[in-house]
Amino acid sequence: MGVGQVRFPFFDVLGQSVDFLGPIPQMLLAIAMVMVLAENQRNAVQENALAFSTLGVDPRRLLSAHDLVPSMQSSSTGW
Question: Which residues touch 42 (CB under 8 Å, ≥6 apart)?
Answer without folding.
Answer: none
